[in-house]
């Protein structure tokens, strides 16, 4: 599927399993952060929407404007961080390299890379909206 040209209807009908949309204050900024820090690929980047791919997984970014008539928008805090309470695991990603890149990309390394008892080396990186991105790899 060509994510740059697929129609919204065809894209929506193709989604399977569990997916997630992340509502962000600036789609372009967040997409660039994910590209710079985690080498993700972004498609159809606009002020309102982007399709993001990491390895074989797809998720979506939506801007506040895209949710103008959605009741969920009223639950987003006006003051940051927005992303409290969720950690987005990025498996098979180098946490040491991601932490280094995050600082250059304007992110905040909340927890430096370290080996965890559950067999993963991981770190916690916050993007501008306060979502916790957790790159990890087996120890």
Reconstruct the topology from this structure.
Blueprint: H1 8-14, E1 21-24, H2 27-38, E2 41-43, E3 49-54, E4 57-63, E5 87-91, H3 95-104, E6 108-115, E7 120-126, E8 132-138
Parallel strand pairs: 1-4, 5-8
Antiparallel strand pairs: 2-3, 3-4, 6-7, 7-8
Helix pairs in contact: 2-3
CATH third-level topology: 2,3-Dihydroxybiphenyl 1,2-Dioxygenase, domain 1
Please state the structural category: alpha/beta
Q: Flag low-confidence runs.
A: none
Note the total helix count. Answer: 3
| CATH architectural grouping | Roll
Beta-strand fraction estimate = 25-35%
The CATH H-level homologous superfamily: 2,3-Dihydroxybiphenyl 1,2-Dioxygenase, domain 1
Would you kindly provide a written description of the structure presented here, covering whatever features stand out?
This protein is an alpha/beta fold. It has a single domain, classed as 2,3-Dihydroxybiphenyl 1,2-Dioxygenase, domain 1 (Roll). The chain has 3 helices and 8 strands; from the N terminus they run H-E-H-E-E-E-E-H-E-E-E. The strands form 2 sheets. It has a 4-stranded mixed beta sheet with strand order 1-4-3-2, covered by helices on one side. A 4-stranded mixed beta sheet has the order 5-8-7-6, covered by helices on one side. Strand 3 and strand 4 form a beta hairpin. Helix 2 crosses helix 3.
């Amino acid at each position: 599927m060509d994510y740059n040209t697929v129609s919204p209807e065809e894209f929506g009908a193709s989604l399977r399993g569990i997916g997630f949309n992340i509502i962000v204050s600036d789609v372009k900024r967040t997409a660039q952060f994910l590209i710079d820090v985690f080498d993700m690929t972004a498609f159809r980047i606009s002020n309102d929407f982007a399709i993001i791919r990491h390895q074989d997984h797809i998720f979506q970014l939506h801007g506040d404007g895209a949710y103008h008539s959605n009741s969920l928008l009223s639950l987003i805090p006006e003051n940051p961080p927005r992303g409290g309470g969720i950690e987005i695991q990025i498996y098979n990603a180098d946490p040491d390299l991601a932490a280094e890149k995050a600082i250059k990309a304007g992110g905040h390394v909340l927890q430096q890379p370290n080996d965890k008892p559950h067999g993963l080396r991981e770190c916690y990186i916050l993007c501008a909206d306060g979502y916790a991105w957790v790159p990890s790899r087996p120890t």
